Amino acid sequence: MKKFTAWILFLTLLSGSLYAQQSLNVMTFNIRLQTDSDSLNAWRYRKDKVVSQILYNEAHIVGVQEAVPAQMDDLRLLLKNYRSVGVGRDDGKNKGEYSAIFYDTSRLSLIESETFWLSETPSVAGNKGWDAAFPRIVTWARFSDKLTGKTFCHFNTHYDHMGQIARRQSSLLLMEKVKLIGKDKPVIISGDFNATPEDEPIKLLTDKKNPLHFTDTRDLASIPAHGPEGTFNGWKINETGNPRIDYIYIRGDIKVKKHATLSEIWGIRFSSDHFPVMATLIIN
User: Percent of the chain beyond pLDDT 90?
Assistant: First the structure.
């Protein structure tokens, strides 16, 4: 009887350990807004490609950028086991681009979520910050992992493409908000930062001298990163010279198993003018 009890205890501990080590697939994806000026690269010709990349790679969380309301409707319809959080950047409701988070409901439970603006007044909807050309937002969510019981936060954003001051100040504000909201829990940060690793906004985020800094998942992957380093393709087939402006960062006790830039091509067509970036994580 003692041996049987010990064996059951061993299996229980082993099972708990295996569940605790279950990995989480995180994706950031600038899906390119819907505009007919894109001709054969318009959304109606590629939305199935965006969805197939998400589903085939079994992403549990996807931070999307540039999604306008009609695209959000399409994704909600086509990603059947997913739900989303986020609001339009222009009015805090359904107007303008979203920096939304889609999550797999079979794996994750939503605890709470909110959106703030990258500006001097983060709680005021529609405000442009500093020298930005457009209102810019961060959508965040707190999740509970149904498989492991672990809780964590995910922040998703899209920095301004014009305002240099805005990008700098956005990094400072984002780090403060991640610390305030995430506290000491593990945090994932994804987005299109419109800046390369050599640019000031990224250097601010990854400065190890700053206790609020983030760590780039590409640098921590247990195996060499897969795919090209550049993440913006501009609809062009180009093996070199593409800038890296899309990132997945972490803060806290998270292990990075894999990192990839997914550069699939259908004939001569891409799913977006950005490649999706994916990281496989273990939240400790």
Answer: 90
Mean per-residue pLDDT, 222-247: 90
Written in H, E and C, the secondary structure of 105-134 is CCCEEEEEEEEEECCCCCCCCCCCCCCCCC
- Please indicate, yes or no, if residue 277 is contained in any of the structural domains: yes
Rounded to two decimals, the pTM is 0.92
CATH of residue 28's domain is 3.60.10.10
* Residue appearing with tokens 């197939």: 52
Both tokens assigned to 171: 């990094």
Q: Is residue 4 part of a domain?
A: no
CA–CA distances in Å: residue 203 to residues 50, 189, 209, 213:
30, 15, 11, 9
Is residue 1 one of the residues assigned to a domain?
Answer: no
Handedness of CA 58, 92, 71, 75 (dihedral sign): positive
Structure tokens at 69: 């309301």
Task: In the chain, count H helices and then E strands.
Answer: 6, 12
Residue 176 lies in a domain: yes
Compute how many other C-beta atoms are within 10 angstroms of the C-beta atom of residue 237: 9
Amino acid (1-letter code) at residue 202? I
